## 1
Amino acid sequence: MDNKVIYTESVAEDCLELGNNLRADDVMECQAAGFTGMKALFNSFLHSKICFSAKVNGKTEAMFGLSTEGQPDGFGLIWFLGSDECFKHPISLVRDGRKVINTWLKDFKMLFNFVDERNTQHIAWLKHLGFTFSGYRYFNNYRFLLFFKILTILSNWLSPSPSIITSKNSQ
């Protein structure tokens, strides 16, 4: 098998395929926020302006997206949920993740969210992507760390826009 990571625009079936195969840390984080993994996937998918699936050998191994609902103009709430398989491709996760973030920063002043402080693998990945951590808040007695990345002049001309990273509304 090829094991190459392929990105597609997400469809509802991707939530079903990934929902029963989420990483234990992602399930733990979803539960700490008050959701099952499946509910978190569907809510994120339905409320995202942009949503993509990462597939390995044709199987959905991760989903990620950006929501603007309830956010100030220029702010994007980003999210990522995946299986254990997705972290077996660290080079793709970092390289492609940087391309996604830099592309999204062309349209948004700030990308942000909170991550369960126990989800150390996601925290390390977010640091590799250049996110800053500052502050925290509690969800159901679990501490979640604020992470964000702000538009800089450099992000406007770093890495070309891959065709996989376009909004649902731009097609």
## 2
Amino acid sequence: MRITGNIISGIILLIVGFVLLLTNFLGIKVNFFRLFPGTALLILGIVILFGQLGGRDELIFARKKIDLSEPFREKNIIFAEGMMDLNDLKYSGASEKIKLNVIFGSVRLILNPDIPSVVHASSVFGSASLPGQSVTPIGSAEYRTGDIQPGIPYLDIEANVIFGQLKVVKP
């Protein structure tokens, strides 16, 4: 096993968190303000050691490309940076809906010109940048790509940005 800076800093934070928690529990008084920093450092150490929190539909405290090979309905990007390339999406030809929530993070969404898509972007104290328009700090916008007609399937993308950034790019 290769020891990296993440492992060393995670171990240090774990030790400091355990020490703070032990001094709090072995003492007579229980003070929230002494308990909170120990718990926060313990959780931060575990996150640094094991990579990320959340399941396969969440991206938390990380920076990576979002995997579109597995089926999903909703992706949450929280305190993270992600990239979603719709060229990697296996589009079945039926209408599909993707919900993308960005909270204190940033996402770059690359559209596929072969898939007709509608992007509904809303922003609350964040920034949503669509081709030809942007939404800051509060508001919503819509962007369409491809030939979208009633009865023809398309990809419906709902993007919600809260204190974050979304950039939609057409190839």
## 3
Amino acid sequence: MGMNANLLLISLADENAKGFAIDFGFLYHRPSGLNVALQVRNLTGAYSWKVAATNGERVYNDPLPLVISAGTRLPWRQFTLFAATNLTYPRVEVNKGTALADLVPTIHLALETEIEDRFYVRGGLNQSTPAIGVGLQYTIRKHNDSRVDYSFHPGVNREGFGHLFSWIFAL
């Protein structure tokens, strides 16, 4: 179980915003290799903007969406199945308060196999868009304590190709 506090800073042209958000997470490991995770992002949180206006300075809040994520990892024969869903609830201003808007769900599925205790190959779906990836596990201090990973997907909304590079390491 864990909690994360986020200090948020953003700059857009000459305007700046500051904010704060809190995340909460839970991860359950089984000896069989089954993992189950739950995360709540932006439990509280908003950006506060100070914008120049004709009659001085205007301050307004930009609330962050509440995101609830659940996922699992399940070893199956020589493969590992990954499944996750994100439920995003945008927050909107209503009568000088904040309310949750319509739910926006996303689903992610992947199947990964390990080759010679070192290489990983993965394929799956990000919503209905195919995605592929590869990884290399290696040793820095302890056996297989680090991994570099690359994944590719062609984009969900015609925004172009997505490339994600990750480095995972144990302390």
## 4
Amino acid sequence: MPAWGRARRAGMRLAGIVAACAAFCVAASAQFVYVKSDATGLGDGSDWPNAFTSIQTGIVSALPGQSVLVAAGTYSEGIALPSDSNVLGGFTGVSGTEGDLGARDPWTNISTIDGSTANDGAPVLHVVIISDVGGVTLDGFRITGGLADLTGFDANGGGVVVDSLVSACTI
């Protein structure tokens, strides 16, 4: 192959690599992942219209350094928080308010994690598990519906099993 052909192919490969990196870097640079119980968009967590509908999905999808912002609503699930998680409830979920932490009011825009039917119609043992992790913040939620009624670890913490910071929550 002539030298110009090899250079052209190498340039095309480089352009493809640059384009892929640019797409990744844009996605990775977003500070927030969005969760809204009644979102109907793409479900990719990129903004309120395209928010995830499950808090746990938002948590698992968040990259290091991203915060999970949760709109008012009831989320029938149990969640487990990994290290360095920052999950904030109390947002309106109104399009155009993405990233506006000043629009957050957890006392008015109530975000509820309800474990009462999250286990195939039965209650979960623990609605929120924050165990053996560090750097975790869970703020602005009403947590209800857990039923820790077994023995040992599962005898306590129907709402929350925790060993990290939890603030501004109703348990």
